[in-house]
What does this fold into?
Amino acid sequence: MTVVIDRATGKRRGERAPRPGPLQRMKHSYQRYWYAYAMIAPVVVVLGVLVLYPLARGIYLTFTDATSLNSARTIGVNHIDATYKFIGLDNYADILWGPTAYDRFWSHFIWTIVWTALCVLLHYVIGLGLALLLNQKLRGRTFYRLILVLPWAVPTFVTVFGWRFMLADGGVINSMLDAVHLPTPLWLEDTFWQRFAAIMVNTWCGVPFMMVSLLGGLQSIDGVLYEAAEQRDHHERHTAPGVDHDRGEPLPEGVLQPQRCGQMHRVEHGVDDAAVGEHEAPAEDGDEGRHR
It folds into this structure.
C-alpha cells in the first residue's frame, strides 16, 4: 500500500484510519439506526419484564433456602416479610449427591435422555422411510401425503386427549387386543407402559414434520443424479464378480472379504433399499464388486 504525506497538513494519504472504539461504534450505530431501536424497544421491555426478571429471580432463589413458608406473602391485610437466607450451593449439592438424589433428580434426568434419544431416532427413521416412499412415483401419492400430514395439522392437546381415551382400560386399543386374546397393558397406570405410550404418542405427533422436511430435501435432488446412479448400478451388475473394473484384474481376497460383510448389512436394510429405487433387483453374487 502506497502512503503519500501531504507537506501542507502533514497528514498521510492512503493510510487506513484507526478503528473506532466500542462506544464510538455504538454511538454511530444508534445515530444511524435509531428508528429500528425505537421500534424494538417495547418488545425488549416486555421480554425483560415477563422473561428475564423472573428467570434472574428464580436463579437467585436457588442459592437460598426459600420455601413457601419463609417467603414474603400477604394474608388478608397482614403482610409477612421473607425470612429466607443465602446458603450458596447447598441446594445443588443436595439435589445431585444427597440421600434422595436418584429419586429426585437422576431418575428423571436419565429418563429425559432416554426419551429424547428414542423419540429423535424414531422420528428420523420412520420419517425417512415415509419420505423415501412418497418420493417414488406412486398412484395416489397426493392422497397419502395428505393422510400422513394430518397428525401434524391436529393440535397437540387434541391428539393427546384422543390417545388418552383410546389407551384407557375400556378404550379402543385394549378392546382390540382383548378381541384377539392378547394381553391388555395398563397404559395409564403402569410406569413402563406410561412411558411406552408417551413415546408412541410423541412419535405419532412428530413423524409428519420430519417426513415433510426430509421429503423436501429429497425432492431438491436433481433427477440427473438418480439417472447417473442407475446407469452405474446397471454397469456394475453386469461386470464379472471379483474383477477390478478399471484394470480387469481379479481383486485380492482381502479386499473382497469386507464386501461380503457389507452384503449382510444390505440384508438388514433391505426395506430401505426397496424404498429407494423401484428398479433395484435383489442382491446377487455379482454384487460383491459393488462396494469396493
Q: What stands out?
A: The chain has eleven helices and four strands.
